[in-house]
């Protein structure tokens, strides 16, 4: 299993992953109770799979960008809001 990066934990809230997981659990219960069809359950699970794939791609891209980022050099100049002549 890959090491967990707890710095990306806010992605759970940003992408509402808790509600997606709760929705999948609710769909499973509804399927078992006969409230939704098998095809509905499959469609919902495939949609959730695509959402999770998108989140995975986002996190991988963010990691790749941060790994390849160059450090910013400390310069002695300061920014001002006034234009220079």
**Overall average pLDDT:** 83
Tertiary shape: elongated
What is the β-strand count? 0
Structural category: mainly alpha
Number of separate helices: 3
Quaternary state, please? single chain
Unreliable stretches (pLDDT < 50, length at least 5) are none
The major sheet is characterized as: none
Strand content is under 5%
Distance between the termini: 59 Å
Helix fraction bin: 55-70%
What is the H/E string?
Answer: HHH
What is the radius of gyration computed over CA atoms, rounded to a whole number of angstroms?
22 Å
Give a description of the structure.
- With 85 residues, this protein is mostly helical.
- It has 3 helices and no strands.
- It has helices at 10-14, 17-32, 38-68.
- The protein is elongated, with a radius of gyration of 22 Å.
- The relative contact order is 0.10.
- The mean pLDDT is 83.
Topology:
Elements: H1 10-14, H2 17-32, H3 38-68
Question: Which structural traits does this protein have?
Answer:
mainly alpha
Concise structural overview:
It is built from three helices and no strands. It is mainly alpha-helical.
